[in-house]
C-alpha cells in the first residue's frame, strides 16, 4: 500500500464517524486506529448513544470530537455524526472494529484518481481474541492485527463486495457492504436520507441501497480494516424484532420513492434470499414463542414473496428442510462430468 498524497489546495476532506454504546474499552481502540492514519482525518467524531455513556469519560483528553446524544440507536448516532461533519466525505467505523493505518491514504488516492466516484468500501480482515473457524487470525489490538496480517493468508471470500456496475440490483438481494470501511460523499448521504432512525437492524442496508440509487459502490481490494468477531456481534444474535425489521426493510425497497430507481431484476429473481430471511425471522419468532410477530412476518412476506409455496418452505421446521434437501440430492444422484 502507498500513500498518494496530494497538495493541500486540491485535497478532499474526510470525517470519520464512530457510533458507540457501552463499549468504552473497544471504542478507545477504534479511535486510536483513526488517529494513526498515515493521512490524518480532517475530523474524527465519536457519537456515544446515550448522554451517560462511559465513552464520554473514556475519551476525555483524546483529540476527537465527542458528541453524545440521547439514547436513540445506532442509526441516530450515525446521522448525528454526519450532521456534525463539515467535510466533503464521511467515513464510518463501528466501535468494535479497527482501521489499517493506510486506509484513508488509499481512499483519498482513489477519489483523486477517479473524481466521479461517490461511495466506496474496502476489503477487510476478520479477527478475534481466540480465532474461531470464521476468523483469519487471533489478535486483540491494532498492533497485533498488523503483525498478524503480514503473514496471514486470506480465507474469507469477499467477492460479495464486488458490485460496481450493478450496485442497486445486487444490494436489493442482500447487504453487500462493509460498514466499517464505508466512505461516502456527504452530499450523497444527505440526498439518500442517511440512516433510518429507530430501525433495529438493517439500517446500514437501507443506506447502501439508497446511496446506490445515486451512485455506484466501488471496492478497494486492499484489506484496509480489521473486523472484530466477538459474542456481541449483531450477526451472532437473533430476535423476532430483528427478523421483522429485516423483512420491513426489504419491503421498503419495493415501495414508491422520490429517489431514482436504477435498472434491476424483477421481484421474482430475489426469491431465494428473501425466503432465507423469512425463514430466519419465523424461526426466531417460534423460538421466542412470539406468535404475534410470527403472524406479522408472514403478512409482510406476502408483499415480497407472492408465491405461497415460498412462504411455506420458509416456515417449514429445520429438520423438514434438511430432509427435503437430502431427498433432492438423492433424486438427482451424484454429479458426473461429461
Describe this structure in words.
The chain has helices at residues 24-35, 55-58, 74-84, 103-113, 142-149, 167-173, 186-192, 203-212, 240-253, 271-287, 291-304, 308-315, 318-332, and strands spanning 14-20, 43-48, 65-66, 89-92, 98-99, 119-128, 137-138, 183-185, 217-228. Strands 1, 2, 3, 4, 5, 6, 7, 8 and 9 form a nine-stranded mixed β-sheet that branches. The chain has 338 residues and is of the alpha/beta class. It has two domains: 14-235, Spore Coat Polysaccharide Biosynthesis Protein SpsA, Chain A, CATH 3.90.550.10; 240-332, no CATH class. The chain starts with 13 loop residues before the first strand and ends in a 6-residue tail after the last helix.
**Mean of residue pLDDT?**
92
Number of distinct helices: 13
Calculate Rg over CA atoms.
21 Å
Structural class by SSE content: alpha/beta
- Domain tally: 2
Q: Major β-sheet, in short?
A: 9 strands, mixed
State the end-to-end CA separation: 45 Å
Q: Under the CATH scheme, which class of the largest domain? A: Alpha Beta
**Strand segment count:** 9
User: Which shape, going by the Cα principal axes?
Assistant: globular
| CATH homologous superfamily annotation of the largest domain | Spore Coat Polysaccharide Biosynthesis Protein SpsA, Chain A
Oligomerization state: single chain
Order of helices and strands: EHEHEHEEHEEHHEHHEHHHHH
Percent range for β-strand residues: 5-15%
Amino acid at each position: 500500500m502507498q500513500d498518494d498524497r496530494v497538495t493541500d489546495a486540491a485535497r478532499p476532506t474526510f470525517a470519520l464517524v464512530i457510533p458507540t454504546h457501552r463499549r468504552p474499552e473497544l471504542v478507545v481502540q477504534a479511535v486510536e486506529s483513526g488517529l494513526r492514519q498515515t493521512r490524518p482525518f480532517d475530523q474524527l467524531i465519536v457519537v456515544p448513544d446515550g448522554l451517560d455513556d462511559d465513552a464520554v469519560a473514556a475519551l476525555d483528553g483524546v483529540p476527537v470530537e465527542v458528541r453524545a446524544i440521547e439514547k436513540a440507536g445506532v442509526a441516530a448516532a450515525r446521522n448525528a455524526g454526519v450532521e456534525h461533519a463539515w467535510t466533503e466525505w464521511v467515513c464510518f467505523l463501528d466501535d468494535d472494529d479497527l482501521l489499517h493505518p493506510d486506509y484513508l491514504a488509499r481512499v483519498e488516492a482513489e477519489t483523486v484518481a477517479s473524481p466521479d466516484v461517490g461511495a466506496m468500501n474496502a476489503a477487510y480482515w476478520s479477527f478475534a481474541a481466540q480465532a474461531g473457524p470464521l476468523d483469519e487470525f487471533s489478535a486483540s489490538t491494532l498492533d497485533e492485527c498488523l503483525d498478524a496480517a503480514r503473514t496471514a493468508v486470506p480465507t474469507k471470500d469477499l467477492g460479495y463486495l464486488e458490485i460496481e456496475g450493478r450496485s442497486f440490483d445486487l444490494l436489493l438481494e442482500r447487504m453487500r457492504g462493509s460498514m466499517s470501511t464505508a466512505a461516502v460523499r456527504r452530499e450523497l448521504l444527505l440526498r439518500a436520507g442517511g440512516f433510518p432512525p429507530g430501525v433495529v437492524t438493517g439500517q446500514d442496508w437501507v443506506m447502501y441501497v439508497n446511496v446506490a440509487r445515486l451512485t455506484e459502490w466501488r471496492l478497494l481490494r486492499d484489506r484496509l480494516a480489521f473486523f472484530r468477531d466477538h459474542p456481541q456481534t449483531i450477526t451472532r444474535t437473533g430476535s423476532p424484532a430483528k427478523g421483522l425489521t429485516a423483512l420491513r426493510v426489504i419491503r421498503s425497497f419495493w415501495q414508491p420513492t422520490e429517489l431514482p430507481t436504477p435498472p434491476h431484476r424483477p421481484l421474482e429473481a430475489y426469491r431465494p434470499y428473501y425466503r432465507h430471511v423469512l425463514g430466519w425471522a419465523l424461526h426466531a419468532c417460534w423460538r421466542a414463542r412470539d406468535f404475534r410477530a410470527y403472524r406479522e412476518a408472514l403478512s409482510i412476506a406476502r408483499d415480497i414473496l407472492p408465491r405461497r409455496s415460498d412462504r411455506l418452505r420458509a416456515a417449514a421446521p429445520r429438520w423438514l428442510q434438511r430432509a427435503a434437501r437430502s431427498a433432492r440430492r438423492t433424486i438427482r444422484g451424484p454429479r458426473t462430468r461429461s
